[in-house]
Amino acid sequence: MRKKEENLNTASGLRIAMILLGIAVTPVLLSSSSLGNQLSSGSLISVVLLGGVILTLLSAITISVGEKARLPTYGIVKYSFGEKGAIAINILMAISLFGWIAVTANMFGHSVHDLLAQHGLEVPLALLVAAGCVIFVASTAFGFAVLGKIAQVAVPVIALVLCDARSSVYILYVATHTEVAVPAAIVEMNTGVAVSTVVGTIIVLVATLPDFGSFVHNRKHALIAAGVTFLVAYPLLYWAGATPSAISGQGSLLGAMAVFGAVLPAALLLIFACVTGNAGNMFQGTLVVSTLLTRFPKWQITVALGILSAIVGSMDIMAWFIPFLLFLGIRHATRCRNLYR
């Protein structure tokens, strides 16, 4: 009887974990390289492990609530805080998602720019960011048309995650087996800020885990998904992404891999991860904003997000990246505590 219930429109903990890791790849690659050159090796490991423990505890709570209630995040928020509270929280979610859309668009533009520069081509960054936003909007539009076939995307998602994992292993191997000059000094980041950065990188996903918990078999599988994703895989992926920057002293993955002579695989990984990840960010952003601006069709919201992200993404926003993650780490962790206590 229990087997029948588990097989009915639900997924195993490992399947959920694979999907969550597929979503997490883009922000991890961006955030980890920004953090890697500001911490020593020992501090990096301790910060990543502590951040992983915090995320595991929060995710275990949020995904278990989704498994129990069998409701999406918006339904739980509305039930807990009422109509006005749900609107306030959705505004916070919209700001967070738009921030990630703009940051990822900027990362896409810089990745393509650096890749073209390797072949002697100079293209304005703003043009590349705008081209990326067109791709993101188009991907989201196609997503609306095939929402009824989401189940058929499960196998490609798993294949994508495996591909990203292999790429990360290759990047880490090259970084640790190439002789480069060790940076003379490391400007140590405050431990509290570093942990908040690790947590803030993926806290939006943790806060919306009821969306996934509502489709997991049972409580045991919900906890398996949380543990495998945030206690095991996430710290390893974050450490692998931060190691090249920690060794080279560069503040970006592309800059670090240029030192090791392996720009091409890193650039291709970043570009592909940006396209797949930001299409999902824009889709989520469209859904959240549509609950606030109900009179506008979703396609208009998607186009507006694309235009705004092209404008903001063309600016030098990477200087705001760590403060943005710190904002996410504080705000969303507080939200999780208040919502699920």
UniProtKB/TrEMBL annotation:
Topology of the protein relative to the lipid bilayer: Multi-pass membrane protein
Single GO molecular function: cytosine transmembrane transporter activity
GO cellular component, one term: plasma membrane
Taxonomic superkingdom: Bacteria
Cellular localisation: Membrane
Keyword Flavoprotein set for record: no
Membrane-crossing segments per the record: 12-30, 42-65, 86-105, 125-146, 153-173, 193-210, 222-241, 253-275
Signal peptide: none
InterPro entries in UniProt: CodB, Pur-cyt_permease
Family: Belongs to the purine-cytosine permease (2.A.39) family.
PANTHER family to which the protein is assigned, alphabetical: CYTOSINE PERMEASE, CYTOSINE TRANSPORTER CODB
Protein's recorded name: Cytosine permease
